[in-house]
Amino acid sequence: MNLRTMILKEIWQRPTPMLTSLTAVTLGVMALVAIQNITLFSEDKINNDMESLGANVLVLPPDVTLQDYYAADLHGRTMPEEFVTRLALAQLPGVENLAPKLCVDAVVDSQTVTLTGILPKNEFQKKASWQGLGMLTNAVGTDRGCCPTAANVDTDNSPQSLASTRTIQTLDESDVILGSDIASQLKVKPGEKLTLLENEFNVLAVLPSTGTVDDSRLFAHLHRVQELSGAGPVVNVIEIMACCEEAAGDLITNLSAELPETRIITIAQVVETQVAVNGLMSRLSWVFFSILLLVGAASIASVMYANVTERRKEIGTLMALGASRGFVTNLFLGKALLLGIAGGLGGYFAGTILAIILGPNLLGIQVSPVPQLFLIGILSATTVALGASYFPARRAAGVDPCLVFNDA
Fold first, then answer.
1. 37-46 per-position pLDDT tens digit
2. Residue 128 — φ and ψ, nearest 5°?
């Protein structure tokens, strides 16, 4: 009978003592894999959201409290449009796009709607004093080389790109763009006419659904909205497309120094909070993993020591028949190796399935298997199992057959 056969027979004949140890090891690997898996994909989602937000820095009037990123311009307070010029001429490193906005109430078919004035990029190009600014004259998405990593700006210059980039290349003063919800409510389509503030507008486009307040808005040229509403040259907010590293770095300080009369908010502040939570989850996963594996190691060691004590006569018989100390040691370590591999495999698959189920249902994150965690789970489980079994195996190998039979 060879070593492998003896190991399998031993596990088959005495499965109960090993199940507790296997369960502890499996739970440890499962906790690590599930939490790490969710954390990794959560971080990816945050990075993608940061890149796809379009504008990731807001310039607001000083007394505004930010309640919602996409509704930050509904506070009713204003600041001079001249602040846009100051920002443009400052040429701050990290600023790629500026998007001033003004929100006013309007009535369409007896229904009150939010009309948002936006300034298309071609308006920046019309001002002679801004002609030398590469940020404003380049096509959307062009990086001026001011950032290690440029923001992910959609290069599509169609009106529909407003939904993702928060900016638009061209918009005539007689045009209006509708969000998906308000277009459905008003039952209008591109090319039709719409009366706003006692003036007729051409429906240029309907934006795709974004799941934000933009779906219920109408967008028109900023200067036209200022003129018709009588608000004058003011805006509610200046949205800034900033390079990702700069948005989380010195840009906020530079903006505050340039416009001390305003309040600067960056979505990176919100992102940093979520990143901190992800970091905490990641660290906790290693804590849970360590605790459960320590429990598993103690359980394995206890089972192995008990097994050595119970089987002293069998071990003595094997050694009397010619089994070497190395053979006996490998017999116990072989069982531990199988236990670790089984616990690592079971923990990886159980943890991955748990993450795939919990990710979308609880956190709205799509999760898929991470091969690196498979290697970590297997190596960790087998290392713990072998480490916990080493001294019991050495004790078994040290059994003296003569003393065993004399005790009998």
1. 887 887 777 6
2. -60, -35
